[in-house]
Amino acid sequence: MKKTFLLAAATLFSAYVQAASDSLTIHRISDDIMLNGTCYNSLRTLCKTIGHRISGSPQAAKAVIWGQKAMEDAGADRVWLQAVDVPKWVRGKESLKLPLGPNNSFISVPMLSLGNSEGTKGKVLKADIIMVNNFDEFKNLTEAEVQGKIVFFNYRFRQDWVNTFAGYGDAVKYRWASPSIAAAKSAAGVIIRSISTGADDVPHTGSMHYSDTTKKIPEVAIGNQTADKLEEACHSRKEVTAVLQSECHMDGTAPSYNVIGEIKGSEHPEEIVVFGGHLDSWDVGEGAHDDGAGCVQSIEVIRTLKALGIHPKRTIRAVLFMNEENGTRGGAAYADSALKNKEKTILALETDAGGFSPRGFGTEGMKPNQKMKIQGYAPLFLPYGIYDFSKDEGGADISFLGKQGVPMMGLLPDPQRYFDYHHTNADVFEQVNHRELKLGAVAMTSMVYLISEYGL
Amino acid sequence: MKKTFLLAAATLFSAYVQAASDSLTIHRISDDIMLNGTCYNSLRTLCKTIGHRISGSPQAAKAVIWGQKAMEDAGADRVWLQAVDVPKWVRGKESLKLPLGPNNSFISVPMLSLGNSEGTKGKVLKADIIMVNNFDEFKNLTEAEVQGKIVFFNYRFRQDWVNTFAGYGDAVKYRWASPSIAAAKSAAGVIIRSISTGADDVPHTGSMHYSDTTKKIPEVAIGNQTADKLEEACHSRKEVTAVLQSECHMDGTAPSYNVIGEIKGSEHPEEIVVFGGHLDSWDVGEGAHDDGAGCVQSIEVIRTLKALGIHPKRTIRAVLFMNEENGTRGGAAYADSALKNKEKTILALETDAGGFSPRGFGTEGMKPNQKMKIQGYAPLFLPYGIYDFSKDEGGADISFLGKQGVPMMGLLPDPQRYFDYHHTNADVFEQVNHRELKLGAVAMTSMVYLISEYGL
């Protein structure tokens, strides 16, 4: 009895000492990043000297070189490029004119073709608009009603939902699937209300998809304010016409790279903790929140551990994935390579939800005991405003590792502003706050440290 | 035994039903504000048609009229103005020239005189600068070293501290007390590094104070980037001179008002829940986060309860306090009136920390059982990202009620960005996110509802 008690007390004491030590390590990580972190200046360089960087573009190629150098400067033991062929989509010129000017005159409105879509080959497409609020309303239309028209899918982002990522998941099907659904009834094109929380007129691009069986008709997005006006016009007028002209098209594939940097584990080098964001962006704005933030935070993990002389027990590997936006070929190539090389990836952690104040970590594909282990770390993160370990969330790039059975995690920043900027010309460096970005890096570094120290 | 069990079960069941019902009510509050809330547009009006509004200014007078109308539009049962005399401080013209140009030439730098300070009466004050990093360093200087000089207090905001309000509390004494401390050794003036988290060159104003026994010397703030350059110059050069010219001065008092709107309680009208923000701002920017946000959120509480047909059991009263920034005369006048009228204020809740995502509520001056009751509500707020009920925090305006023994609370938004904008020309409407602002209103409305429903 006495022995058992002493043993229990010793175990408890040791757990207490460990937690106290981890708490101090995380404190050191936080202090170093908040005072000496380079992620904010690094993001400025990426955004202001390279800018947006869609897969296959010259800017994406420059970003690869930038990433490689940044990993080296951070002090990674080894930095390498992993070849990956990426689809190339080219926007070209585009315009949408709607009769929303004085006396219903036609005016050019802010618009963006959706990524991967085909345009009008530069020709003028003039057609009447038919508006529906959702797919159910569209189902009730006959082919005769739709034929030759431009369908306006006027679905609204659920602003009443507190978690904007749930709202995005709900609304994004209109971006993804509308053209094929409309083409099945012989529509000539599609306009969607942007997948946007913005109280503004900023159009949002993002990837779409054609089914194999339907015609590839153009799809463009308009901002919320233009959508409101178009909605009003569709309600109040007998006929509303649109004039669309666009050149966007797929242009084969191009060679590109994932950028990888690692620190070899001191005790279990064969066990690998993978973490990262994606290096490509859409061809608008500067890809600051999506996902320059995730890239510079991942590089900061390496810099911080090196700067503090913390040698991880397991190998930690930062990956800047290429082509998350319109193909996820980088994520697929990384997972293929890991399988081929029989690597033992113990966890994959993605940061691709913006450089906002971190509020939690999602988990996905974990065994209950693994999830419990992660959730057991929650008290260590509370002083940094990180409290939510309840959500089921991994990431698009790491989902290919997930399919191989690798447990996944995703950094969860405050989600309120992300879908104001996501995939737009407004996603620029100025919209990223230095302290919020750095706190995200603190979260990433601390979690990578814990997993590398204790495994999963 | 069986009876006791049944009684306990019935009590538990009733508590469960109550919590479920509160959860639904808060859900309704959230949905209504996120979809129909007027606080964001209301803030736009305040910021863009009135702008900054220092106590005693024509803009502050306009803001009173705006607030009165906004309370009426929100549906308050009764709206009234409460007279309060406020100190009037006038900035006038001001400039600071430092030898930070090419070949050490003098250039005008971004600067702001501190609120309530006296300037140079429009005359040129040219004097050598002596730099210290903190009060301890200043203590080691002799009067001969300081006499006739401008003291540069180069104290840095603690960027390593995660809670910026702690950092503010730590640094603000340099703004508040430096002139009197420097004047005691016959300094001619004071320059401070702004009390700022900004990675920029924006100067921050804010109130300062003269002791009764020392000369009233001028105090000005410079942005972090200019402060870095000045620091470098003071380190590397034998002599660094400043040229200051300013007209700021106190200009007596002026009549003004608190704006008050209430809904009478249906069951305990004599018990009053007071909540609010402050209507005045500094004479720069638009006072958007500080504290236009708190004003429109408080008005939103009234609008929402009325719109949803929720009749509070206790009287709820929104107060837009005047003169928080440089005198807190509005808060004092309100508390005086409450005492004189023998009002029974059961709680005072302030929102004056910016229109950012809400993360918690602070409590102050509460009995343990009251604090436990408030903390018991925490699970109801978790779905809205509000998790922190641990901090000791009330508010400046309600502190006068606190001195009378009234329990206090403060809304705690995410604190990372606040001190980038606080008291600056950058505190404008564009820096407020509509969803973050509205979520703060959801938090306020829900807490006011719970207190009005169950008392304290």
TrEMBL record, chains A, B:
Subcellular location: Endoplasmic reticulum; Golgi apparatus; Lysosome; Secreted
Record-linked InterPro entries: CPQ, Peptidase_M28
Pfam short name (any one): Peptidase_M28
Signal peptide: 1-19
GO BP terms, alphabetized: proteolysis
Subunit structure: Homodimer. The monomeric form is inactive while the homodimer is active.
PANTHER family referenced in this protein's UniProt entry, alphabetically: CARBOXYPEPTIDASE Q (PTHR12053:SF3), PROTEASE FAMILY M28 PLASMA GLUTAMATE CARBOXYPEPTIDASE-RELATED (PTHR12053)
Annotated keywords: Carboxypeptidase, Endoplasmic reticulum, Glycoprotein, Golgi apparatus, Hydrolase, Lysosome, Metal-binding, Metalloprotease, Protease, Secreted, Signal, Zinc, Zymogen
Organism name: Taibaiella soli
GO molecular function: carboxypeptidase activity; metal ion binding; metallodipeptidase activity
Name assigned to this protein: Carboxypeptidase Q
One CC-aspect GO term: lysosome
Ranges where the Peptidase M28 domain occurs: 258-438
Keyword Endoplasmic reticulum in annotation: yes
